[in-house]
Queue: 2 jobs
Job 1
Amino acid sequence: MARGTSDSGMQPIAHALSIFVPVYGVWQAYRHFALLDALRRKVDPHGVDALTGAIGTGIWWLTFTHYSTEPIFQALDAIELAVGTAVILYGQHALNAYWRSRPGTPVEERMNEVDWIALGVAASFALLTLVGALMGPAS
């Protein structure tokens, strides 16, 4: 997105880590989706709802900030995983549509090493959560 705005001050790693700061992370998610909406509307009438991205991020954050083997918290972990996945897919779908629609040289869709690491960490977390829920002590 830094290329699309010519903003050399963008710091993707700092932006991603801001998600863990209460309230500020939701504000950053809103700003992120609003920028994505503005970029996409330049080349495509279909936009992205920034509030939806921020609400999804808020739900993810609320359920992420706990850990317990109690059944209610296991259910919240499942919600966290679903909402987090939905927010990422929502944003990535819009970003891919922007890249395909924008004028100029087409941008190659690819996954780099960081994408694979993040996907591996997320899949490992999901698998360990599922195994922990299935193998936990019976109440």
Job 2
Amino acid sequence: MRRARMVRRRRLSRRTNTVIGIILLAGILIYGAVSLGLGVSGFVNEHELATGGVSAVGRVSATSGYGKNTIQVTYPVDGRQVQGTIGVDPSSVYQGELLDVVYDPGSPSVVSLASDVGDTSSAWAETITGAIFLLLVPLSFLLALIGRRRRRRRAINAALGDRA
């Protein structure tokens, strides 16, 4: 009988592990910062719409191509048509449907459904997700330091002949 050869997996060098770790941490940091920024922006937009928003009747101009759960709406602002994007399940509306919307007069492309004004659940979700990802960065750094100290202690003990 032949023995199956065991494939040995070659370990990556410490430098390679460090580079991979830095790239992952940078990605986590960027994702966390962007999510946190979007969450804060969502709170600001909801506040602006709730306190100074102007009501209008918008027409659904597109139900695909603007993200997974968004539609595009066209509505009148000072006699001209403005387009904005609203977070709605595209299957719940049809192109050409009229919807009550609220827009920010200072930035007319910031728009929301009239029924959703004041709903900050998506802003909370993005803010919490961003905060969690940003907290992973110092936690990862701390765990890396602990692991490096353990490796150093083991190397010193091995050099001294201790097995403890």
